[in-house]
Amino acid sequence: MKRLPCVVVVLCVAACLPSGLINRARAAEETPFARGPYVSKVTTNSAVLFLGAKAPIAALRLTWREADDVEEKALPADKLDHEVLLSDLKPGTIYLYEIKAGDTTVKGKFTTAPKKPRPFRFAAYGDTRSQPAIHKIVADAIAKEDPEFVLHTGDLVDDGGDEEDWPEQFFGPAQAMLRRAAIFPAMGNHEGRSKLYFKYFGLSDNKAWHTFTWGSVQVFVVDTCSKFDKGSTQWKWLDAALADSKAAWKVVVQHHPGVSSSRHGFNGSVNKHLRPLYEKCAVDVVFLGHDHIYQRTKPIAGPGGHGVTYVIVGGGGAPLYPAKQVWWAAVSESAYSYVVVDVGRDSLHVVAKKPGGEVIDNFKLEKAMFEEVK
Predict the structure, then answer these.
(1) Rounded Cα gap, residues 193 and 187, in angstroms
(2) Is the CATH number of domain 33-111 3.10.180.10?
(3) Which of 23, 75, 291, 344 has the fewest CB atoms within 10 Å, i.e. the most exposed one?
(4) Is the separation of the CB atoms in 322 and 262 below 8 Å?
(5) What is the pTM assigned to this prediction?
(6) For residues 12 and 8, what is the distance between their CA atoms, to the nearest angstrom?
(7) By CB neighbour count within 10 A (0-12 exposed, 13-18 middle, 19+ buried), where does 245 fall?
């Protein structure tokens, strides 16, 4: 009975999308895998490949390559869950991989983080739970954008503690995207701080917050489902990490927004404890979920603070919420959507799209990153 409401909702919301897109939302490709392959925890010289098999596979081999540099590894036949560290990689380099399981061969690619600033693209979306057919449409559209990594703002599945939800609602619908780009999610309330979330993304110590750098961009993954009040362990980490950052661009991804024109409205804790840090440390943009809409605020700042742009990208597949038009929002729309971010020499160019290609929002953040060479 658990699945029935989800099916009814999909049929109801299907009218919101072009029929051609619905027709292309086919079932996930049949493979011996319940999860993956997918790549996360990527650095300049390493990456972790994750794989979850449906049953033990006698002959399971992983091959990865960059040009003529080929490496191969046999994976344990008696294990279902695989977490493989790929090390000694080159920065800013595309790697191709193959996984052979009997007669099945699955191919994918990922890019390592660049050491130095260079142009690249990443994407962001969230709230993919409950409606796998819609999620697949959005994720397939992101795959075609060819980002180097994808940020997810949380609520990947309906029930993070249910092992069946993960392949059905996230890993299955997103498989085309996950085979082209690294994934970096933030914890959503529907994950319920489940041990499966930490296991599936290789996060230890029950800690879902972390940071990584990609060229000129440093991303801070914040867990708004655990304590983040001033003086908490996470707050102290974030305060220090933001202050120590030397990156030209500071980007935050978290689930709960401080302000929203939709159902969840104003979040007092986020505004009291996190917003002052973002303004003090000159964060450029925060990507959020929780409300199932697209929304971009005008730059928000308290007295003397740095203006921060907040972008809700909660249109990844969950049932849409209404979006009101309010004075502090530059754009607000109830739509299935995602954003692509092109990082340039001195700008972040952000475009929000519906999966059919219609542009909802298009804006640019600019700063003088480099001195002119004379």
Answers:
(1) 7
(2) no
(3) 23
(4) yes
(5) 0.92
(6) 6
(7) middle
